[in-house]
Amino acid sequence: MTVSTDPVQQLRGAALRVTRPRVAVLEAVADHPHADTDAVIQAVRDRAGDVSHQAVYDVLRALTGAGLLRRIQPSGLVARYESRVGDNHHHVVCRTCGDIADVDCATGTAPCLTASDDHGFSIDEAEVLYWGTCPACTATTVH
Amino acid sequence: MTVSTDPVQQLRGAALRVTRPRVAVLEAVADHPHADTDAVIQAVRDRAGDVSHQAVYDVLRALTGAGLLRRIQPSGLVARYESRVGDNHHHVVCRTCGDIADVDCATGTAPCLTASDDHGFSIDEAEVLYWGTCPACTATTVH
DNA sequence: ATCTTTTCTTGACTTGTTCAAGATCGTGCG
DNA sequence: CGCACGATCTTGAACAAGTCAAGAAAAGAT
Questions:
Q1: Among candidates A105, A112, A132 on the partner chain, residue whose Cβ is nearest the Cβ of B106
Q2: What is the pLDDT of residues A51-99, one digit of tens each?
Q3: Do B115 and A130 touch (CB under 8 A)?
């Protein structure tokens, strides 16, 4: 069974109250995957009128906590959000412009999920980040 | 051939000027792997007297750029540094206390280094981060 | 020893994010 | 359908990590 794509149902399903800001955030992130908080705030205001930046921060946290959104924050960049959750995919990050693209698991369903020596940690997630240069930046660099 | 463990030689080898702050930072990070900037500043002052926080930031950036140090910044946590570079090992991060431990590559030398679909990105590094709970925090949580 | 260039010091500032108090709104219940 | 309660939003201040900028100091070449 797939998770509903309707914001209201998603919220209900997660036992969260349905509010204008929350619906708008879910829609905004679905429309702009990998958007940072600022871009989400803009997109939310475009579709739902005045919403305080604080509300967006709160909502992003609540939705991330509920598992409806996933937060990505590559080293040195600001936090970004995406609505594609639960399929354990990974990301490529451009060192130059910070652009992010999705990458599905290379080998099977959960490739690097088991550490060789976990030092007694109980591991629940493996996050893979690929670093490189995006096509656009590669093109610009080559004069 | 192995990279020297002597700070002065490391700096010379990277064509960097040898200064008191730089030597102190290299020693501090070697002594305290996975320390954040603040901890590095403290450690540097302990061993080299007054050094401005700005100098430490500059030095950390210069050394990271030269490949003498590696910067780690898990989502939501402040930047940390380690001197174990060039062996492509990964990290486990405790969700509760932020503690970090080293993890060697699970399968062979470079497990997940190839993305299934790179979207045209030219990838130069794959970073793997394991998330979980460290032994200490597991013990505290279980009442 | 002197000169040039890099690096360090000082201190202000920016950015992304969080805290806090009170107003407002969603939802369950009568 | 309307009320009560608690969750959520607004407003505005605060905070932490890191960066910027100008001048003083020091490393290394000659």
A1: A112
A2: 999 999 999 999 999 999 999 999 999 999 999 777 778 899 999 999 9
A3: yes
